[in-house]
Amino acid sequence: MKRLLISVLCIIAISQYFWLQWSSQPQEVAEFDRVALPDYQITALNRTEYDPNGQIHSKLSAQSLEHYQELEFTYFQNPRYILYSSNQQQSWVISANESVIYDNRQLELEGKVSVMTNQPDEWFDTLYVNRLNMDLTAQTISTSAKVTGVADKLTFSGQGLRGNLKTQEFELVNQVRAEYFVKQ
C-alpha cells in the first residue's frame, strides 16, 4: 500500500512540476505587422487637382481611401476619376470597384472598370474591362484582359488594349472583333 501511495505522489509531483514549467513560459501574442495597417484612412473622398495655371486637371471621388506610407501605395474603394482636357472640357470618366496608386503616378483599376468619353460619337463611347493599368501623368492605358467597347454604331471586343487618352488613340491587341450597325 505504501508503494502505491508513494507512486501516486511521485506521479502527481512530476505532473505538477511539468505543468508549472509549461504554464510559466511566456505566451506568444500574435502582433499585427504595423506595415499592414494603413497610416490614414478617409471616407467619402472628393479631391480636385489643378495644373500650375490654376485650371482643373482632374477630379477624384471614392467611397474610401487607405494610404500605406511604408509600402508606398494608396488603395481606393469605388473610385471615380474625371480627367479634363486643356480647354477645361470634361474628357474622360473612369470608374472601378477598386484601385491602387503607386508613386502618385501608376494607377491599377480592378473590377467592373469603365472608361467613358464625355463626347461620345458613332465610333466610341465606353470601354469595359475587368482590370486596367493607367499612367496618370501621360494618360496612357493598357490591359491584357478582355476588353469590350460600345458606341452609337459600333460594338467591339478584343484581348488586350493599349491607348492614349490625350490623343484618343486606342489599339486592341489580340482577338479583335467588331460589329458595325447600319441604322435605317
Automatic annotation (TrEMBL):
Pfam family, one: LptC
GO molecular function, one term: lipopolysaccharide transmembrane transporter activity
Cell wall biogenesis/degradation found in the keyword field: no
Subcellular location: Cell inner membrane
One example of a Gene Ontology biological process annotation: Gram-negative-bacterium-type cell outer membrane assembly
Highest taxon, organism lineage: Bacteria
Membrane topology, as annotated: Single-pass membrane protein
UniProt keyword terms in alphabetical order: Cell inner membrane, Cell membrane, Membrane, Transmembrane, Transmembrane helix
GO cellular component: outer membrane-bounded periplasmic space; plasma membrane
Function: Involved in the assembly of lipopolysaccharide (LPS). Required for the translocation of LPS from the inner membrane to the outer membrane. Facilitates the transfer of LPS from the inner membrane to the periplasmic protein LptA. Could be a docking site for LptA.
Subunit: Component of the lipopolysaccharide transport and assembly complex. Interacts with LptA and the LptBFG transporter complex.
Family label: Belongs to the LptC family.
Name of this protein: Lipopolysaccharide export system protein LptC
Taxonomic source organism: Catenovulum agarivorans DS-2
Gene coding for it: lptC
